[in-house]
Amino acid sequence: MASVIGVYYYLRIVYFMYFGEDKSDALDQNRSTLLGGFLVASAVIMVVGIFSMFGVEGAAASAAATLVQ
Description:
There is one protein chain. The protein is an all-alpha fold. The protein has a domain at 33-60. The chain is 74% helix and 0% strand. It has helices at 2-19, 33-52, 56-68. The longest helix is centred in the middle third of the chain and has 20 residues, at 33-52. The radius of gyration is 23 Å and the shape is flat. 0% of the residues are buried. The model has no long low-confidence stretch (mean pLDDT 84).
């Protein structure tokens, strides 16, 4: 059953690639401010996540030392 569902979704993508209508106008529409807010928030979360990893080594080493002893 899962294979049939998977085939449906994969073949649907191939169908739209070759036989689907060209909807390039949809990309030119104005974006909402809510979408822009989500994009900015996700970019900030990624940057904070990357920079917060630089201070983790000391805490991880002390936690590992506590578990070993």
